[in-house]
């Protein structure tokens, strides 16, 4: 082999080498789609699992609804009337409790307002009596002075 032939061998790959390179390139190009396909399969399996759980839940709830409907159909009309009457009584009790609470609040507020008015009146009366007491004390002191003056004369 001459120098030109050796250079040509280095620049032009052999057929098996090209096939290997092309295979590696194709495999590299397929890795991402294969990974995505794997992810989609995993997602699909997860969705199938969730669908199965939801279907089981739906069947369980359907069964509960059927049982409740059957129980409701078994309740005699009298019992249903009693339940309705009981509901009316509870509603009435609730309404009365609410009205009683409102009455108590209004009464308490009225009594507190009256107590405030009485406190104000008492405070004014105490102030007036204190002033009168101070005035009387001054008069007594003046009378005592007058009596001493008269005695000393």
Outline of the structure:
By secondary structure, the chain is an all-alpha fold. The protein is built from 3 helices and no strands.
Question: How are the elements arranged and paired?
Answer:
Elements: H1 3-11, H2 15-74, H3 77-152
DSSP helical segment count: 3
- Biggest sheet: strands, sense, closure? none
Low-confidence stretches: none
Topology as a string of helices (H) and strands (E): HHH
**Beta-strand residue percentage:** under 5%
- Please state the CA-atom Rg, rounded to the nearest Å: 52 Å
- Percent helix among the residues? over 70%
Assembly state here? single chain
Please give a structural write-up.
There is one protein chain. The chain is mainly α and 153 residues long. The chain is built from 3 helices and no strands. The chain has helices at residues 3-11, 15-74, 77-152. The model has no long low-confidence stretch (mean pLDDT 88).
Key words describing this protein structure:
153 residues, mainly alpha, 3 helices, 0% strand
